[in-house]
Amino acid sequence: MHILIYPKLNIFLKIIGFQAGFHQLQSRFVLAQGGLYDEMYISTSNAFALKGDFGCALEDNLIYKAKCALEHYLHKHNKPTKALDSIKVEVLKRIPKGAGLGGGSGNAGAFLKAINTFLSLGLTQNALLDIAKGVGADVAFFASGVQSANVRGRGEIIESTNTESANETSLDYEIYTPSVFCDTKKVYQYYADSIKANKRAYSEPVKDWFKLSSKALLEQHKDRAEMNDLFLSALKAYPALLDVARNLGQEWYFSGSGSSFFRLKKA
Questions:
Q1: What are the CA-CA distances from residue 61 to residues 52, 72, 89, 103, 182 (Å)?
Q2: Is 183 a catalytic residue?
Q3: Strand 8-19 versus strand 87-92 pairing type
Q4: Is 148 within 8 Å of 137 (Cβ atoms)?
Q5: Which of 194, 262, 187 has the alpha carbon at shortest distance from 6?
Q6: Rounded CA gap, 150 and 255, in Å?
Q7: What's the pTM value of the predicted model, to 2 decimals?
Q8: Where would I find the GHMP kinase N-terminal domain in this sequence (predicted)?
Q9: Residue 135's CB: how many other CB atoms inside 10 A?
Q10: Which of 24, 54, 131, 181 has the most CB atoms in a 10 Å sphere around its CB?
Q11: What does the pLDDT average to over 240-264?
């Protein structure tokens, strides 16, 4: 089985509070279906194998965590798990790490969705999403198979916008990723520190934004800091991003915790 895994962009990202140990988000996730993507190959093998330029130990890899979470779910529901130990997963990595594009989450979500078909597990969409939520906040979006969604909570509450706008899934994006690796935990820590120091406050909910198309959001809101609550914290954590932002100009937006910028592709 061969799967293409596209990067995720945050059209906007608002942090509206902190609950049960996690920041609570409102965001619009979209898949940027262009020339940048990872490729995943799934095949049978004598033993479980995971290959790719992941840059982390096996136990820290989100695909491996997804496999373990799936095993746990199957065992809990008295379903066989042996087949999971007879697959080989190989990923050709192109989506850069530390770029705010959901590369690792995309791999894990795509794996769950694909392996359900590959092994004929017969898991429902809700079951897949429940498993994905335990692996990582953004994994559920990729496991859902939707191309555009309004997202809440930690990123695990997904409401598809694929059918709300005829143009939503046909938008083309340009992505620029500078040679700056952004550690998500570090950026969030800078954000949390600014909240504790009363230098900023959590955002008010922006439910009206959920009703707008991604194109309308980008056309109506030009301020990066307004569109992404993590932008200023990323600049503090990685000052080199300031020059990147200045050189790109105001039409480029910031995705997630960075370091990637994006814009609608010009005709």
A1: 10, 17, 12, 11, 18
A2: no
A3: unpaired
A4: no
A5: 262
A6: 15
A7: 0.93
A8: 66-145
A9: 25
A10: 131
A11: 96
List, for residues 45-84, the tens digit of each pLDDT value.
999 999 999 988 999 999 999 999 999 999 999 999 999 9
**How far apart (Å, rounded) are the C-alpha atoms in residues 68 and 144?**
19
Of 38, 67, 138, 229, catalytic: 138
Q: Please, what is the end-to-end C-alpha distance for the chain in angstroms? A: 35
Beta-strand ranges (E) seen in 32-70 are: 38-44, 49-52
CB distance 219 to 11 below 8 Å: no
How far apart are the C-alpha atoms of 245 and 208, rounded to whole Å?
Answer: 27
Per the structure block, which two tokens stand in for 72? 């746990």
Backbone angles phi, psi at 190, to 5 degrees: -60, -40
Query: Has domain 1-266 been given CATH number 3.30.230.10?
Result: yes
Ordered by start, the domain boundaries in the chain are 1-266
Distance CA(99)–CA(236), nearest Å, equals 16
Residue corresponding to tokens 């937006």: 253
Cβ neighbors of 216 (< 8 A, separation 6 or more) are: none
138 a catalytic residue: yes
Estimate to the nearest angstrom the gap between the alpha carbon of 227 and the chain centroid: 17
Q: How far apart are CA 136 and CA 22, in angstroms?
A: 12
**Catalytic residue among 8, 14, 65, 133, which?**
8
Distance CA 191, CA 211 (A): 27
Residue 59 gets which letter from DSSP?
Answer: G
pLDDT digit string (tens) for 170-222? 789 999 999 999 999 999 999 999 999 999 999 999 989 999 999 999 999 99
The token duo for 34 is 């262009």
Strands annotated E in the chain: 2-5, 8-19, 22-31, 38-44, 49-52, 87-92, 148-153, 157-160, 173-176, 253-254, 261-264
